[in-house]
UniProtKB/TrEMBL annotation:
Location of the Glucose-methanol-choline oxidoreductase N-terminal domain: 284-298
Active site, UniProt feature: H517, H562
Organism classification: Eukaryota, Fungi, Dikarya, Basidiomycota, Agaricomycotina
Entry keyword set: FAD, Flavoprotein
Family indicated by similarity: Belongs to the GMC oxidoreductase family.
Identification of the protein by name: GMC oxidoreductase
Keyword Aminoacyl-tRNA synthetase: no
Any one GO molecular-function label of the UniProt entry: oxidoreductase activity, acting on CH-OH group of donors
C-alpha cells in the first residue's frame, strides 16, 4: 500500500540475460549508474549493469532523513567491522551502500566538489587530463543546480539535482554561523573557483526541489530511461559478480572475457556473461579490490597464500586504503534547536512530518550538517584560537590551502553518554581529519565473494595525522567557546578533559569513528610508483586491455572533501573517454 510499496521496474532476471554485451558494468552504485546511463546512450551498444542489492524505490527510500544510514531500516547498508585498529584500541564499524544507487541512497547528501588545488596536484603529479580545469566540465555535466541565483560554475542540465536552502532549519546553526563569522573566512559558495577553500560555508545537498533524495539511481536511471532503453540496457539486481574471467590477447597481454555472476538468493543460479568491448568495475573502494583479488589480480604473495591462481601480479590492489576520521563530541542545547526534539516531543514529530509532506521542507530533509567548516590545522593555536589569516591563504589554487581538517556541527549527539540531559537538545561540533597520511590495506578474508573483506584502515598511524586531529578538536572547542561568549546556552556533555595532547588523544580513542569515505585501494598511478598504482590515467587496469575501474578506489589519495561529487565527475569523465574511444573505432 502507498507509500510503502515498490513501483514495478523493468529489471532483467539473471536467467534471462543475454550471453554477451558490449559493456558490462559491475556494481550499480554512485559511479555504476552513471556509466550504465552514459554507455547506453549509443543505440548501437548493449550494456549490462550488475548490482548485488535491490532496486527498491519506495517512498521511505526517497525521504532523505529516513533513508540515511543512521535513521534507515538498514536494508540498503552493508555493515561490518574493520580489523582491530592499533591507534584507536578497537575495531571500527565500516558501512557501504547496497542496492542501485549504492552509497548515494544512504549517505548524508552533502555535495562538495573539493578544492581546485587538489586536482591540479593530481595533474602536476603526472595524472594528465585530471586538473581542475579538465574535471570541472564533468562536475557541471552531472549537476542541475537548484539554488536561487544562477552561478556559472554550477551545472544546469545534468541528471543530479543539487539544492541549497536559505537560513537554517536548526537554530543552533545560527549560533555556529555567528561564532564562525568572528574567526573564520566566509566561503560564499564552495564551488566557486574564486572563493577561498578554507573557512565556513553553507552546505549543498543532492536533493530535488520536492525534497527527495537525488541518488545516482533516481538521477541517472529513472524508470523512463530503463523503459525506453530496455532492449539495450539490462539492469540485473540481486546479482553478485563472483569473479572476472580472463584470457590472453594474441600479443600475450591480458584481457577480460566476461564475468561470472551469481544470484544472491540461496537457490540462485550462476551464469557467465561475455563482454564484447569492456568490463567496468564500480563496486566501490572496498569491493572492487576484493573482486580483483578473487579473480587473481593483486599482490602475488597474498594471492598465493589464499590459493588463488595468479592472473596478474598487481601489488597495488587493496593497498593504500584511506578514510576520513571523525570524532563525536556532545553538548546540550535548547531542546527545539535539536532534532532530538522529534524523539522526546511527539508533537514536533507530527509538525515536521506535516511540513515535509505538505511543503517538502523541514527536518525530514535530513539536513543534519547545515554548515561546515573546512580549515588548516597549521592555523590553529594550542589553545584553539585561530591565527591571523593572510590574503595568501584565500587562494583556492594554492596547494598549501587544501584544507586538512573539518568541523561538522550536528543537531544531534549521543544521548547515551553519562551527563547528557535527555530532556534538552543534543548537539555536536564534530572535528574530522581530511588530509590523511596513514595508509591501510584490504585483504581477502576467504574465497567466498559474499564474505566481507579484511579492512585495516590504520587510522592515525602517522604523527602528522595525530597532530592534525588534535588541532581539529582544539578548533571545535574554540567554536563552542565563541558560541557561549555570544550568549548561546551550550553545555558540555562529552568533550576532552583539556586541550593537552594526552587528554585529546584519550578522547579521540574513545570517540573516533569512520566517515565512510573509503578510497584509493586501486589508485590511479603508474605500476612502478613507490606506492604502486592499479589503473592508468584512462582508468584502465595496468596490464589489461579492456578492464577499467571507475569508483572511489581510483582516487590517488582520499580527497579533502566529501567524495560523492567527485565520484560523479570521475564517472562522467570516464564514460566520455569510453564513448569517444569506441566511436573513433567504428
Ligand atoms: C553512511 C554514509 C554517508 C555518507 N555521506 C556522504 C555525504 O554526505 N556526502 C558525500 O559526498 N559522501 C558521503 N559518503 C561517501 C560517498 O557516498 C561514497 O564515497 C561514494 O558514493 C562511493 O561511490 P562508489 O561508486 O565508489 O561506490 P558505491 O556507491 O558503494 O557503489 C558500489 C556498488 O557496487 C555494488 N557491489 C559491490 N560488490 C559487488 C559485486 N561483487 N557484484 C555486484 N555488485 C556489487 C554495491 O552493492 C554498491 O551498490 C557517505 C557514505 C556512507 C556509507
Amino acid at each position: 500500500m502507498w507509500p510503502f510499496t515498490t513501483a514495478p521496474s523493468p529489471f532483467v532476471a539473471l536467467e534471462d540475460l543475454s550471453a554477451e554485451y558490449d559493456f558490462i558494468v559491475v556494481g550499480g552504485g554512485n559511479a555504476g549508474c552513471v556509466l550504465a546511463r552514459r554507455l547506453s546512450e549509443d543505440p548501437s551498444k548493449t550494456v549490462l549493469l550488475v548490482e548485488r542489492g535491490d532496486g527498491d524505490d519506495s517512498w521511505l527510500t526517497r525521504v532523505p532523513l529516513t533513508s540515511t544510514y543512521q535513521f534507515s531500516d538498514g536494508k540498503h547498508s552493508n555493515v561490518f567491522s574493520s580489523v582491530y585498529e592499533e591507534r584507536i584500541g578497537r575495531s571500527v564499524t565500516s558501512v557501504t551502500g547496497l542496492g542501485l544507487g549504492g552509497c548515494t541512497r544512504i549517505n548524508g547528501c552533502q555535495y562538495t566538489c573539493g578544492a581546485p588545488a587538489e586536482f591540479d596536484s593530481w595533474s602536476r603529479d603526472g595524472r594528465h587530463g585530471w586538473s581542475y580545469a579538465e574535471l570541472k566540465p564533468f562536475f557541471k555535466k552531472s549537476e542541475t543546480w537548484l539554488g536561487r541565483d544562477r552561478r556559472e560554475y554550477h551545472g544546469y542540465s545534468g541528471p543530479l539535482y543539487v539544492e541549497s536552502y536559505e537560513g537554517y532549519y536548526f537554530k543552533s546553526f545560527e549560533a555556529v554561523e555567528k561564532a564562525c563569522r568572528r574567526i573564520l573566512p566566509t566561503i560564499e559558495d564552495m564551488h566557486s573557483p574564486t572563493d577561498p577553500s578554507i573557512g565556513w560555508c553553507k552546505m549543498q545537498y543532492t536533493m530535488d526541489s520536492s525534497g527527495c533524495r537525488s541518488s545516482s539511481y533516481r538521477a541517472y536511471l529513472p524508470m523512463e530511461i530503463l523503459a525506453s532503453r530496455k532492449d539495450r540496457l539490462h539492469v540485473c539486481t540481486g546479482a553478485l559478480a563472483r569473479k572476472l574471467v580472463f584470457d590472453r590477447n594474441g600479443d600475450g597481454s591480458t584481457c577480460v572475457r566476461g564475468v561470472e555472476i551469481q544470484g544472491t538468493n540461496s537457490d540462485s543460479v550462476s551464469v557467465n556473461v561475455r563482454a564484447k568491448c569492456e568490463v567496468i568495475l564500480c563496486c566501490g573502494a572496498l569491493r572492487t579490490p576484493q573482486l580483483l583479488l578473487l579473480s587473481g589480480v593483486g599482490p602475488r604473495k597474498h594471492l598465493q597464500e589464499m590459493n588463488v591462481n595468479v592472473v596478474l601480479d598487481s601489488p597495488g590492489v587493496g593497498e593504500h586504503l584511506q578514510d576520513h576520521l571523525i570524532v563525536l563530541t556532545g553538548y546540550n542545547c535548547p531542546l527545539f534547536d535539536s532534532i532530538w526534539a522529534m524523539i522526546v516531543r511527539p508533537t514536533v514529530l507530527i509538525r515536521e512530518l506535516y511540513n515535509y509532506l505538505r511543503y517538502g521542507t523541514g527536518w525530514f530533509l535530513g539536513t543534519l550538517v547545515e554548515l561546515e567548516i573546512f580549515f588548516l590545522s597549521s592555523l590553529v593555536e594550542k589553545d584553539g584560537r585561530v591565527k591571523p589569516i593572510s590574503k595568501e591563504r584565500e587562494d583556492p589554487f594554492n596547494p598549501e590551502n587544501i584544507p586538512d581538517i573539518a568541523i561538522l556541527p550536528s543537531p544531534l549527539s549521543d544521548p547515551r553518554v553519562e551527563g547528557a540531559n535527555k530532556w534538552k537538545g543534543l548537539f555536536g561540533l564534530n572535528p574530522a581529519l581530511l588530509k590523511v597520511t596513514s595508509r591501510g590495506s584490504l585483504r581477502l578474508r576467504s574465497l567466498d565473494p559474499k564474505d566481507t573483506p579484511l579492512c585495516n584502515l590504520n587510522y592515525l598511524n602517522t604523527p602528522e595525522d595525530r597532530n592534525t586531529m588534535r588541532a581539529a578538536l582544539r578548533l571545535s572547542a574554540e567554536i563552542a567557546r565563541k558560541m557561549c561568549d555570544a550568549g548561546y546556552p551550550l553545555k558540555e556533555t562529552y568533550v576532552p578533559k583539556s586541550l593537552e595532547d594526552a587528554d585529546l588523544d584519550a578522547f579521540i580513542q574513545e570517540r573516533a569513528d569512520s566517515m565512510y569515505h573509503y578510497s584509493s585501494t586501486c589508485r590511479m598511478a603508474p605500476l612502478d610508483d613507490p606506492l604502486p598504482g592499479v589503473v592508468d590515467n584512462d582508468l584502465r587496469v595496468h596490464g589489461t586491455t579492456n578492464l577499467r575501474i571507475v569508483d572511489a578506489s581510483i582516487f590517488p589519495a582520499v580527497p579533502a572533501t566529501h567524495p560523492q561529487a567527485l565520484v560523479y565527475a570521475v564517472a562522467e569523465k570516464c564514460a566520455d573517454m569510453i564513448v569517444k574511444g569506441h566511436s573513433s573505432k567504428k
